[in-house]
Design goal:
Substrate binds at residues 137, 151, 192. It comes from Vanilla planifolia (Vanilla). The chain crosses the membrane at residues 6-28. Pfam families: PARG_cat_C (PF05028), PARG_cat_N (PF20811). Belongs to the poly(ADP-ribose) glycohydrolase family. The structure is a single chain. The chain has helices at 13-24, 44-48, 56-74, 102-107, 151-158, 165-168, 234-248, 254-262, 290-293, 307-315, 341-354, 373-382, 387-402, 430-433, and strands at residues 7-12, 80-87, 114-118, 130-136, 176-182, 187-190, 197-201, 214-222, 326-330, 359-363, 412-414, 434-436. It is α/β, with parallel strands linked by helices. It has a single domain (7-253, 325-417), classed as Leucine Aminopeptidase, subunit E, domain 1. It has an 8-stranded mixed β-sheet with strand order 1-2-5-8-4-9-10-3, with helices on both faces. Strands 6-7 form a two-stranded antiparallel sheet. A hairpin with a 6-residue loop joins strand 6 (187-190) and strand 7 (197-201). It is globular, with a radius of gyration of 22 Å.
């Protein structure tokens, strides 16, 4: 699965077991894998880390793997697993969602989706229909078969079928994500990092979909590693939101998005084609040019539609919402990667909303900086903000951070009349327009 080549690989769980057995016995050729931007797949390094100076977590990772083999030897699973490379084309396309720039996010009139914070529990334990975010390395699996033992690596141990993707999935570029559906969970655990411990088997009771895949949907997307202050610059913000957007949007429903746009969910009959950002089916939802895609903007309704009108129009294309699959995520790109958790939370919320996901369940993992997240999100939703509104506030906040301001994005929310004016927003008027929650 090469870079910039969208596609899906579908494997039976029995074939997955055979591939993992080959990796266990280190049977795969290793030459040129690094040259082809492929991660290691054999288990030699994992077993080689078992020595007196090795942290116990490595031994417990192997216990998860051996437990998996014990289970499938007792009863071979009969389902299927799919691995999909998702791509936002860097060039505009009339057949797929394209890679947006900053102006796209600024002008979006899509309403924000439901946002629920969860202060305890784990993403993999949630019971809703949701894409579960893997805080991934650009090389799928990260250090799963090496010394790593944080969020991604742990998920690969308790769901060992994920490891198979490391055989053929080339590293991800900025406009790519990897979606994996159907992997079964086999292990329970406690701890994190060096304290990780295997504590026994797990019986996965998730139902199967129409393709006989278990309804476990994992989206692997890599954040910028150690971004420092660059993460507050517009280039990094665009990169991160587009990475999440690529993971969250369902390209197979492109025709439905086009239908929504052409029905006038967005539009202003007084807007020129050069400014027709909102009504173009490859703009507000996809990114693109009205003139390039020959969209007739003159027939759209006058004035921008309200979020409620938008929702009614979206419902007219029920294929998008037939499963109501939301997003389950948390502090993506934070921790070892050094990202700001408040910025990352807002970016994921914006991306999920733009992708027309019905909700985000956000696991805070007890991070102090996220304590007011629920309060701020409820306030924003109650005032009917759109994706464009919140994007502008985040950009303004990030600019202040670049100028060494110390405000908190969550605790400082610009609220003047229920919706900010991004055109006239000025940082020197902050005192008059800010409300501290």
């Amino acid at each position: 699965m090469d870079q910039q080549e969208a596609g899906i690989v579908l494997l039976s769980q029995e074939l997955v077991a055979g591939i993992l057995a080959c990796a266990f016995f280190c049977l795969f050729p290793i030459s040129r894998r690094a040259f082809k931007y492929l991660p290691a797949i054999n288990f030699d390094y994992l077993f080689g880390s078992l020595h007196s100076h090795c942290p116990p977590s490595q031994e417990h990772k192997i216990m998860c793997i051996t437990h998996y083999f014990e289970r499938i030897c007792q009863c071979m699973p009969k389902g299927f697993v799919s691995f999909e490379r998702k791509v936002l084309p860097l060039r505009q396309s009339c057949h797929a969602v394209s890679y947006p720039e900053s102006a796209f996010w600024k002008r979006s009139m899509v309403p924000l989706c439901s946002f629920q914070t969860i202060n305890s529990g784990l993403i993999e334990d949630q019971q809703h229909e949701a894409l579960e975010v893997d805080f991934a390395n650009e090389y799928l699996g990260g250090g799963a078969l090496h010394m790593g033992c944080v969020q991604e690596e742990i998920r690969f141990m308790i769901n060992p079928e994920l490891i198979v993707g490391m055989l053929f999935m080339v590293s991800m570029k900025k406009n790519e994500a990897i979606e994996i559906i159907g992997v079964e969970r086999f292990s329970r655990y406690t701890g994190y990092g060096f304290t990780f411990r295997f504590v026994g088997g797990f019986v996965d009771e998730k139902p199967l979909d129409h393709m006989n895949r278990r309804k476990v949907r994992i989206i692997a997307m890599d954040a910028v590693d150690s971004p420092g202050n660059w993460q507050f610059g517009i280039d990094c913000l665009v990169r991160e939101i587009n990475k999440a957007y690529c993971g969250f949007i369902d390209q197979s429903k492109y025709a439905c998005y086009v239908k929504i746009s052409k029905e006038g969910s967005f539009g202003n009959s007084h807007t020129s084609q050069d400014e027709a950002f909102i009504m173009d089916s490859n703009e507000c939802i996809f990114g693109g040019s009205s003139t390039q895609n020959n969209i007739d903007v003159s027939s759209s309704s006058s004035g921008y539609q309200s979020p409620s009108t938008f929702n009614l129009s979206v419902r007219s294309c029920p294929e998008i919402f037939q499963e109501d699959i939301g997003i389950a995520t948390g502090n993506w790109g934070c921790g070892a990667f050094g990202g700001d958790p408040q910025i990352k939370a807002v970016l994921q919320w914006l991306a999920a909303s733009q992708a027309l996901r019905p909700f985000i369940h956000y696991y805070t993992f007890g991070v102090t900086a996220m304590q007011k997240l629920e309060e701020a999100s409820l306030w924003i939703l109650s005032h009917g903000w759109t994706v464009g509104d919140l994007w502008c506030i985040m950009v303004e906040y990030s600019t202040q951070r670049l100028n060494e301001a110390s405000h908190s994005l969550i605790s400082v929310v610009i609220v003047e009349n229920g919706r900010p004016d991004p055109v006239h927003l000025q940082s020197n008027q902050e005192e008059e327009r800010n409300k501290v929650l």
